[in-house]
Amino acid sequence: MKVLGLVAEYNPFHYGHKHHLKESLSITNSHYSVAVMSSSFVQRGEPSFVDKWTRSKMAIENGVDLVLELPFVYSAQSAELFALGAVKLLNSLKIVDFISFGSEEGNLEPLKRISKILLEEPLEFQSSLKQYLSLGNSFPVSRSLALQEFLKNDSLSQDYDFKKILKQSNNILGIEYLKALFNTKSTIKPITIKRIGANYKDIDTSTSISSATGIRNIILNKDIKACKELVPLETFNLLKEYILKYNKFNTLGNYNHIIRYLFLTENNNVLKDLLDIDEGLENRIIKFIKENNSIEEIISKTTTKRYPSTRIQRIFIHLLLHLNEVNLKELYSYRTQYIRVLAANKKGLYLLNKIKKESEVKIITKFANYEKYNNEVINKFLYFEKKATDIYFLGLNLDKPLVDMDYYTTPYIK
User: Fold this and answer.
1) Which of 127, 177, 211, 303 is most exposed, with the fewest beta carbons within 10 Å of its own?
2) Of 143, 167, 191, which residue sits at a domain end?
3) Which residues are annotated as a binding site for ATP?
4) Residues 191, 298: one domain?
């Protein structure tokens, strides 16, 4: 019995995800699949387009066997922390044989080479990194430039274009998965599937497989019918159900007023304690909040080569939940002690029984059940999870507020 592990956002589930699942199962000869899926807010620092239960149902309807929640404190973070949280969770299950991730490169060899350098941090690389940081570049950009310089004379540079590899977002995330596997001493074997169709951030929907960004963009700028040919029928039907139920999809712009309010009224020490706030960045954000009305304008004006837009967006999300650096460092120090089931089919239920036998993690299907464990660590994680869910639905600005949805929503079982 081979079990395939996946890490995803399914925001929404599209043909690229379907291709990745099919190819991964085939290459690894796996019989079962388990996906670790981001919570109410995604890695780029935005609310998910549709809620986590709708996205998990999309995954099950399109062939995934079991969907588990990547805790909020990992899901709206840098690629490094996002990958670490997902790998720790997959490790904790004690049943996963493979992890498969999509990449523009489609070959593990150069990604492993880069991850090895980042893990070992040779002195020459460290020196270059400091130099590029001193020039005002962001850490990700500085790291990429330092790696390119270090790899110029590498034997693999004749076969691979490292400059191109390091500019592509899925390659970068894949490198972080490889680092996380090494750092956690994981026995899970990595594979990568070459992405086909549009790139991650590409808004072009004319290709045979469109990106999630492109699909979201066309829905927001046109209507739900415009994406019918871009996603599997199961996804399309669930998107239609969602818009009929809530009358809108969720975007960061829905939090415009509350984000601006918090930045203008919070104590400066609260802002300084947020992860990714340094060098007076909070003052730069406040300056542009005072000068601009929309969240998009604020992000655009605040963004520099040192402060990429995704970093700004994640700061906004952390402030919404009052999740500071001290909270995060404490939570990251713990091993995975629970898993939260979002959806499963019959094969997924079989996997849950296997996990129960092989692993020590607590399995949470009904949210209220976590209280019976009287576990301080689980309580801390789920405190932020509940807040994230409540704030997610706050963004939809519904006539009748939806609160405590974690308690009222049960996993989808097919």
Assistant:
1) 127
2) 167
3) 7-20, 102, 170, 195-196
4) no
